[in-house]
Amino acid sequence: MQIIIYDNAEQVAQNAAQWVLSLLKDKPHPVLGLATGSTPIKLYNELVKHYKAKRTSFAHVTTFNLDEYYDISCDSPQSYRSFMQHHLFDHINIETANTFLPTCNKDQDPRKQGLDYEAYIKQAGGIDLQILGIGANGHIGFNEPTSSLRSRTRIKTLTQQTLLDNSRLFKSNELQPSLAMTMGIASIMDARYILLMATGKHKADAVMQMITQGVSSNCPASILQMHENAVILLDKDAASKLPDHAYYEWVNEQNQHLNEKFGLFHKF
Ligand code: F6R
C-alpha cells in the first residue's frame, strides 16, 4: 500500500485526477472502475475540467461502476446511473454504451445479473484503475463488514449505518432501497491498480483500521493490504489516527522521483 497524505480534499482530488489522466495517456483503450458517493465528486469535477481544457479525451474509455441500488430505475435521481451522468458522463466525450453499472432488476435472478456483470468486465479486459471511497464502517463498494473476502458481484443487504449515511440523498417521501448489487471484494481486487480516496474526520477510524489492523472482513477495505498496487490518498483529517506520517512522506518523496523517471504505472 502506498499512503499519500495531502492537506485537504481538493489536493486529494487533483492528485487522483493525475492518476486517471496518466492512465488515459498510457493506454489506448483504458478501463476505469468508478465509485459514487460524496468523495469522488471533486475528482469528477477535476476530470471534467481537464477534458474541457482539451488535456484529455474519454473517447476510448470504458467504465464499470462498483454498485447500483436494487429495483431502481436508471432515470430515478437517486440511481447511481443518474449520479454518474450528472457528475461525469454528461460533461465528457464518453460513449454511453461504454459506461456500465451493475443491474439489480427485481424481475431477474440477481445471481445471473452478478455473473453477467463479471463477464462484461472480463470481456473489456479487466479494470486498469479502480477508484474507491471507503464507508465509515470500512466498506468498499457495498461490501459491508463480514462480506466474504472472495466475494464477486452480487446482491447485498446494506447495514443500518450505510442506510443512515446515504439517507441524505433521499427525500423523506422516497423509498430508500436497503439492497444493492455490488462488485465483490475479489472483483475489486482483480483491478490492476486501486486508488482509494478518503477525506474528513468521520473516515479516520475506518482508515486507521484499514491500514494498521489485520486483514479482516470486519473492515473490508483492509483487503487492500494484499493488493500489489493499492494507492491510498488521504486528507489530513482522514489520516489523523495514523501513526508514521513522517515515514509516509519520506516514502512519497522517493516514489515521486521514481514516478518522474519511469511513470506512474507499470505493466500496462
Ligand atoms: C459508492 C461506494 C461506497 C462509497 C462509500 C463512501 O459507489 O461504493 O463504498 O465509496 O460509502 O461514500 P462517501 O464518499 O459518500 O463517504
Q: In words, what does this structure look like?
A:
By secondary structure, the chain is an alpha/beta fold. Helices cover 34% and strands 16% of the residues. The chain contains 8 helices and 10 strands. The protein has helices at residues 9-26, 41-52, 80-87, 110-123, 160-166, 185-189, 204-212, 245-262; strands spanning 2-6, 31-34, 62-65, 67-69, 99-100, 129-132, 154-157, 179-182, 193-198, 230-235. The strands form 2 sheets. The chain has a 7-stranded parallel beta sheet with strand order 1-10-9-6-2-3-5. Strands 4-8-7 form a 3-stranded antiparallel beta sheet. Strand 9, helix 7 and strand 10 (230-235) form a beta-alpha-beta unit. The radius of gyration is 18 Å and the shape is globular. The mean pLDDT is 95. The structure holds fructose -6-phosphate.
The largest β sheet comes out as: 7 strands, parallel
Q: Largest beta sheet: what is the strand line-up?
A: 1-10-9-6-2-3-5
- Give the end-to-end Cα distance, rounded to a whole number of Å: 19 Å
Q: Report strand %.
A: 15-25%
Can you count the helices? Answer: 8
Cofactors, ions and other ligands in the entry: fructose -6-phosphate
Overall outline? globular
Helix content: 25-40%
Query: How many beta strands in the DSSP annotation?
Result: 10
Low-pLDDT runs of 5+ residues are none
Radius of gyration: 18 Å
- Structure classification: alpha/beta
- Average pLDDT confidence is 95
Question: Could you give a short description of this structure?
Answer:
With 268 residues, the protein is of the alpha/beta class. The protein has helices at residues 9-26, 41-52, 80-87, 110-123, 160-166, 185-189, 204-212, 245-262, and strands spanning 2-6, 31-34, 62-65, 67-69, 99-100, 129-132, 154-157, 179-182, 193-198, 230-235.
